[in-house]
């Protein structure tokens, strides 16, 4: 792309949907310490937003309800900038300076994507903004360098991930799910949760076949939930509150501490969210729905 003077008129907006682990089975551990997983993942309409604009020089800024946390702990900030820098190195051409603004709507270190989703959205957004035509395999390679969850978040559609998260199988018939996300706004350490995992060679998720999705999800589990509950008692409390609010299925996402409840209708999800906000006004509570996997 030839260099030109920044006009300020070229703007790109990219959603960074929250990642939900509907199921997460830990099936082994590699010699290098990385854990092997089988995880059923979907994404929600709730999430962060990346805004990109031409600028005289590179810049970064943040806003949103959880931006102050990243101001104190710039891990998410660094992932966004690492994504920008790795993409610029890989494209092999001169790319214009950009001002990137992160609208931080999701809790930090909460098991629903966070910095990984922001990094993936940065890659997608900059590819559009800079009009790059990188091969999907090359983009996935960049994503994996940023973190094991980033390739999943790069897809941001229902999928099954295996290995350390890099072996991805897209799912094209996942229905829309209505859910409520609940987080006590207390972070848990992912390395500590894995260290506390008693069994690291658990049964795999297996194949769904013709089984209804809710039945298949109901038979699965999150192997990280028991150790996470032991570390943070509010995870169990959040699960109980979701069940009492009428959720058909309740589970923790990722390594926590966000829990989700599935509801039969969005109206019921919204009613449950309103009830939970009254019960725990200091917590993050969000009614949302998933991005479907149906062919478009």
UniProtKB/TrEMBL annotation:
Sites where the protein binds ATP: 107-117
Signal peptide annotation: none
One BP annotation, GO: isopentenyl diphosphate biosynthetic process, methylerythritol 4-phosphate pathway
Catalytic activity: 4-CDP-2-C-methyl-D-erythritol + ATP = 4-CDP-2-C-methyl-D-erythritol 2-phosphate + ADP + H(+)
Any one Gene Ontology molecular-function term assigned to this protein's record: ATP binding
Keyword Membrane assigned: no
Enzyme Commission identifier(s): 2.7.1.148
Span of domain GHMP kinase C-terminal: 221-279
Alphabetically ordered keywords of this record: ATP-binding, Isoprene biosynthesis, Kinase, Nucleotide-binding, Transferase
Domain GHMP kinase N-terminal positions: 78-155
Biological pathway: Isoprenoid biosynthesis; isopentenyl diphosphate biosynthesis via DXP pathway; isopentenyl diphosphate from 1-deoxy-D-xylulose 5-phosphate: step 3/6
Domain of life from the UniProt record: Bacteria
Active site: 19, 149
Protein family membership: Belongs to the GHMP kinase family. IspE subfamily.
Matches recorded under PANTHER family: 4-DIPHOSPHOCYTIDYL-2-C-METHYL-D-ERYTHRITOL KINASE, CHLOROPLASTIC
NCBIfam families membership: ispE (TIGR00154), PRK14608.1 (NF011202)
Entry function: Catalyzes the phosphorylation of the position 2 hydroxy group of 4-diphosphocytidyl-2C-methyl-D-erythritol.
UniProt cross-references to HAMAP family, sorted A to Z: IspE
Name of the molecule in the record: 4-diphosphocytidyl-2-C-methyl-D-erythritol kinase
Species for this entry: Agrobacterium bohemicum
Phylogenetic placement of the source organism: Bacteria, Pseudomonadati, Pseudomonadota, Alphaproteobacteria, Hyphomicrobiales
